[in-house]
Amino acid sequence: MNVFQTAFYDVALSDWLIAAGITVGATLLLVVMKRIVASRVLTLAMRTSTDVDDMLAGLINRISPLFLLVVGLYGGSWWLPTGAATRSTIDHVFFIAAILQTGMWGSSVLAYLLSKSTRLREYEDPSAQTTLNVLGFMSRLLLWSIILLVILDNLGFDITTLLASLGIGGIAVALAAQNILGELFASLSIALDKPFVIGDFIVIDSYLGSIEKIGMRTTQIRSLSGELIVFSNTDLLRSRVRNYKRMQERRILFTLDIVYATPYRTVERIPQLVRTIIEAEEMARFDRAHFKGYGPSSLVFEFVYYVLSPEYNDYMDVQQRINLAIYRTFEEEEISFAFPTQTVHLQTRTGASDFPRHAEEDTSRHRDFLTDSEEKSWST
């Protein structure tokens, strides 16, 4: 009896061996072809400036070895005598493998397109990265949802009924995961409305810092002291956010207090003196200078100017130069700065009727300032 004629599952051993040989040979051939083609495309990509061939090299490398094995098995299965049911099952397996491989290629193409868009726009529009990240997630989710529906339809499921069932079940899932969905829609709102982008300096309540990352659920902010502050996207949208990066220029208001003993003509010249100092600063735009009013212990002057830069360091440098110039000018003009002072006038009398009414209300305090003879007169 010839051993190769031995039947296994109604198929001769010789047919099994031939099918196995076809499978192994086809798989090895596909692996070798993949490596050769990938190597040549990669060599070509290194010689050209375009990145399309880089994408093609990436797609070739994304071919799964498992998919190549399925292709080899599918080719070997044609040697075997199979029934209609078995052939249908093999076709379904091959189709599922092919559609999954297509999904992997689709994800790679989306990643390439999003990466290219980000590189092109990151210098012109820093918010593009956040928007493209959200759109990338949504597009990949849509792609794999379609692939899943195609697979289920190929397996014989009624996807129309399934979609209706998913609609009802989706409501229940949405209610159960409303916090997660809320964060997802919040990130989408941030990506579309762009109230802030990566690199912006923002202030939220008592927290301030530069945005480092805007994710699907949280936003990370690097504070001035160095620690990382993490906010949920929902909390950010509910808060009052002050975005200092969006400023074109800074409006600066400051006051100067001058002593009351300053002569009238000097007081009249002070606004013009400070205006001249501000206008001499290249990064400043003068707005106004006024003698504002009479303070408790000083004459109050108010000045307003604009720093032609939104950067905080630029503002501090400009303010420092202005302050030093004011100090030098006031020193030359012999103008004295005021500081909180209070003058107390003490008056003593020999008769009780001559004392003010408030002295009668607190006699113990005024006795400290009386002489011995006056104290006797007061006591009588």
Structure description:
It is a single chain. The protein has 13 helices and ten strands. The protein has a five-stranded antiparallel β-sheet with strand order 6-5-4-3-7. Strands 8-10-9 form a three-stranded antiparallel β-sheet. The protein has a two-stranded antiparallel ribbon with strand order 1-2. The chain has three domains: 3-121, no CATH class; 182-245, SH3 type barrels (Roll); 250-332, Alpha-Beta Plaits, CATH 3.30.70. It starts with 6 loop residues before the first strand and ends with a helix. It has 380 residues and is α+β, with helices and mostly antiparallel strands.
Query: Total domains, how many?
Result: 3
Uncertain segments are 357-380
Order of helices and strands: EEHHHHHHHEEEEHEEHEEHHHH
Mean pLDDT: 78
Note the beta-strand portion. Answer: 15-25%
Number of separate helices: 13
Radius of gyration: 41 Å
Structural class computed from helices and strand pairing: alpha+beta
In short:
The protein is an alpha+beta fold. It is built from 13 helices and ten strands. Mean pLDDT is 78; it is low at 357-380.
Summarize the topology.
Layout: E1 7-8, E2 11-12, H1 13-47, H2 52-61, H3 65-77, H4 84-121, H5 128-154, H6 159-176, H7 178-193, E3 201-204, E4 207-214, E5 218-223, E6 228-232, H8 233-238, E7 241-243, E8 250-258, H9 264-279, E9 284-294, E10 299-307, H10 312-332, H11 357-361, H12 363-366, H13 372-379
Antiparallel strand pairs: 1-2, 3-4, 3-7, 4-5, 5-6, 8-10, 9-10
Helix pairs in contact: 1-2, 1-3, 3-4, 4-5, 5-7, 9-10
Please supply descriptive tags for the structure shown above.
Alpha-Beta Plaits; 10 strands; 3 domains; about 375 residues; alpha+beta; 13 helices; about 55% helix; three-stranded antiparallel sheet
